[in-house]
Structure to design on (797 residues):
């Protein structure tokens, strides 16, 4: 199934009411790792709203991105508890290991590195997440080791 | 099971309650901390140990029962035993936690190897000592029940009460633990007005941080002239360092929805929306599961329990914008627009979501409602202090020994929470500050530790209650760096609609970055104060109005650190790069060599007299020696220029 069909399927899961615009875009983001111009046009047409409104929503919310993200998103929590316990060093190490900066995608398209404000697992600070898995009490060497072992894949 | 009338539900409740005392239960904590420490695998192994045919997918099949012989002394009785995962039990530091009911015993750091021992101890009816949680003397408690464990003994678990003893997925469990008593009572014997008055009389104040009286909000919405009214749950817990709402939505989702249903009945609404951060996927799943079960049971939908009351609930996921926790921004976001705040000259209770009267309350506020209705406002007022009734849940994190989720009566002091419950500062380092209220709150120093935790006292002290993050900081935390951290956060989260917040915060950020990178100039601190005043006075919404709090409170209580950063380019906490030097005080050094062993740069040498010295050329200032030295002989001193 191509992108256009997948998007059509997502659209039809939601009622044709502008209130579901964000919900639709979040689903598209999850399925496609980005919200393309075509997807925005399709959503605008489906809900009967202006393209500019869809564009405004896509650019406002941090989760939605026009640039294609990696297949896996590694998120380093930079919440207060994680910050206090050294998340900056973990982030630096992952940037080095993946050879990308925050928001970047690795050359093979596998990983995107992001920060997240708080994942609510502060007792385990600092935390790194990948998909629905959280990895607690990180330090630079542990994070590098997990990455090498493929734990974030 | 579907309940068509009130008596259907009442009868079913009695039926379940009668079955209750017949069994033993082993609950494994499913909070995020314990899950990351392997509690899901542990739960699966417990299930297998009880029943080798049991499905290993504990996330969907939540309990297994099997007959085992339990011997209280001589009398052999046959009991059912079940095991399952719960929401967060609180003592996250020592997970995975296992809780045995009805004995109320808590075990910590449980591994698969302990399963046999725990099952054996249940059969013998004695505690399993090997993993008993620590008692008041710091050693494993003889009987590890809540009153013997300092972390739990000083708490008052009201909204978190059920979370250690039931499956968050199972409606029967919720009903068995007192769930839906509040809705039954409301629909059975109270008019909507009476429900409203009861909440008003209870003195319940908004747990999201604002502290606005909930009952007053409800009443004003109830009295507004409109056909359509909405009730909303604010589950957009964006404060970094806070996970109370996540814990509630994951661990006791039914109580939030029951509270919401009671609220809808009280104000005359038939539609509710729960707004949840998309960063909390499990909370979304658990809430969706609860809504589905409640619809099937007839506790949500049309004509609930045959009373003619209709109520539908939907979930709306956020898109990762902190500002959406602000009430009007949240409503704009639900409408499917960019979540920017609106000017609030008309209250949301008159014109809120889609211009209709709307009540928006925080997750924890809603979870309090069923308790108040069931037990009465007078009972609720007996907990806490005069103008701050009830309890408050906190996420106790940072440099504290026992991190975790705690619930205390309002009016408990910061010292009691941090020292009696939290066990004090990690590694026994000196306490420097406690941060409450998230990016809108402030940092309070040791001299304020006896401040009672309630809405008014914290605001008076220069911080705020906020949603309940409580972050403990030790002497290795730089207060200027913390201010920089929060302002960085807020710059990223400012929606950009109003100028003072968008541009003012950026100016503050530039100054703070200079201060923390050795480029401070005289007058910087004063400039920060001036900017703070302007931003607070002129911003459109609460995000901007409170954005300066972290800066103002750190300047108020830790001005000397700002001055050092500004004038001497010195960071006494050893955090800001290039602004300090690490040395060993030879007088204090006991030649143990731990520092040298732990130095990643291998730059600590042994002197002829047996003492150790840091070779400054190779030092990367990581602080490893500082952390490990048992004699506090490692010191942070001012950087000296090469010619000195």
């Amino acid at each position: 199934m191509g992108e256009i069909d997948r998007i059509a399927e997502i659209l039809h899961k939601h009622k044709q009411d502008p209130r579901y615009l964000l919900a639709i875009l979040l689903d598209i983001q999850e399925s496609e790792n980005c919200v393309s111009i075509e997807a925005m046009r399709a959503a605008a047409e489906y809900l009967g709203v202006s393209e500019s409104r869809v564009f405004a929503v896509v650019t406002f919310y941090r989760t939605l991105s026009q640039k294609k993200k990696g297949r896996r998103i590694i998120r380093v929590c930079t919440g207060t508890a994680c910050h206090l316990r050294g998340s900056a060093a973990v982030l630096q190490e992952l940037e080095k290991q993946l050879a990308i900066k925050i928001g970047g995608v690795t050359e093979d398209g596998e990983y995107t590195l992001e920060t997240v404000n708080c994942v609510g697992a502060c007792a385990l600070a600092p935390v790194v997440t990948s998909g629905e898995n959280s990895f607690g009490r990180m330090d630079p060497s542990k994070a590098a080791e997990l990455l090498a072992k493929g734990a974030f894949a | 099971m579907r309940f068509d009338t009130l008596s259907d539900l009442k009868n079913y409740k009695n039926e379940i309650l009668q079955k209750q005392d017949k069994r033993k239960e082993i609950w494994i904590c499913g909070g995020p901390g314990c899950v990351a420490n392997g509690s899901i695998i542990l739960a699966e192994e417990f299930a297998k140990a009880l029943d080798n045919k049991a499905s290993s997918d504990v996330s969907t099949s939540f309990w297994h029962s099997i007959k085992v012989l339990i011997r209280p002394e001589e009398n052999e009785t046959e009991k059912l035993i079940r095991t399952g995962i719960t929401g967060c039990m609180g003592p996250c530091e020592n997970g995975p936690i296992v809780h045995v009911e009805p004995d109320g015993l808590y075990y910590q750091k449980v591994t698969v190897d302990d399963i046999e021992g725990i099952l054996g101890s249940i059969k013998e009816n004695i505690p399993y000592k090997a993993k008993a949680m620590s008692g008041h003397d710091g050693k494993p408690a003889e009987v590890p029940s809540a009153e013997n464990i300092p972390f739990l003994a000083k708490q008052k678990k009201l909204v978190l009460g059920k979370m250690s003893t039931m499956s968050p997925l199972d409606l029967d469990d919720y009903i068995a633990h007192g769930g839906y008593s509040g809705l039954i009572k409301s629909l059975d014997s109270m008019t909507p007005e009476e429900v409203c008055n009861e909440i008003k009389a209870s003195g319940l104040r908004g747990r999201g941080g604002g502290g606005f009286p909930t009952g007053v909000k409800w009443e004003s919405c109830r009295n507004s002239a409109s056909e359509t009214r909405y009730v909303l749950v604010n589950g957009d817990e964006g404060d970094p360092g806070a996970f109370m709402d996540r814990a509630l939505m994951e661990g006791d989702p039914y109580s939030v929805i029951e509270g919401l249903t009671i609220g809808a009945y009280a104000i005359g609404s038939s539609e509710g929306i729960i707004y949840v951060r998309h960063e909390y996927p499990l909370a979304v799943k658990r809430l969706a599961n609860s809504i589905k079960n409640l619809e099937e049971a007839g506790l949500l939908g049309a004509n609930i329990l045959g009373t003619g009351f209709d109520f539908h609930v939907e979930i709306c996921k956020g898109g990762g914008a902190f500002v959406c926790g602000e009430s009007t921004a949240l409503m704009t976001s639900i409408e499917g627009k960019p979540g920017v705040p609106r000017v609030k000259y008309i209250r949301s209770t008159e014109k809120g979501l889609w211009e209709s009267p709307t009540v928006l309350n925080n997750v924890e506020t809603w979870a309090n409602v069923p308790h108040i209705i069931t037990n009465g406002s007078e009972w609720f007022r007996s907990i806490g202090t005069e103008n701050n009734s009830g309890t408050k849940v906190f996420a106790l994190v940072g440099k504290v020994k026992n991190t975790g989720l705690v619930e205390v009566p309002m009016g408990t002091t910061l010292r009691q929470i941090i020292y009696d419950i939290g066990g004090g500062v990690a590694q026994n380092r000196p306490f420097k500050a406690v941060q409450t209220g998230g990016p809108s709150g402030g940092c309070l120093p040791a001299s304020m530790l006896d401040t009672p935790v309630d809405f008014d006292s914290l605001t008076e002290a220069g911080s705020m209650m906020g949603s309940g993050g409580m972050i403990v900081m030790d002497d290795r935390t730089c207060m200027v760096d913390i201010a920089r951290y929060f302002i960085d956060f807020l710059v990223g989260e400012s929606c950009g609609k109003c100028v003072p917040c968008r541009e003012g915060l950026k100016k503050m950020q530039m100054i703070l970055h200079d201060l923390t990178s050795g480029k401070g100039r005289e007058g910087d601190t004063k400039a920060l104060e001036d900017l703070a005043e302007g931003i607070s006075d002129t911003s459109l919404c609460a995000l901007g109005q409170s954005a300066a709090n972290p800066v103002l409170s750190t300047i108020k209580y830790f001005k000397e650190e700002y001055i050092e950063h500004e004038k001497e380019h010195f960071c006494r906490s050893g955090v800001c790069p290039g602004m300090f030097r690490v040395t060993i005080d030879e007088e204090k050094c006991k030649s143990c060599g731990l520092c040298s062993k732990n130095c990643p740069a291998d730059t600590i040498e042994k002197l002829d007299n047996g003492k150790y010295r840091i070779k400054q050329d190779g030092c990367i200032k990581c602080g490893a020696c500082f952390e490990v030295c048992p004699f506090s002989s490692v010191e942070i001193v001012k950087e000296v220029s090469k010619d000195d």
Chain B touches chain A through 54 residues (CB under 8 Å). Chain B has five domains: 16-151, 171-381, 385-474, 479-568, 581-637.
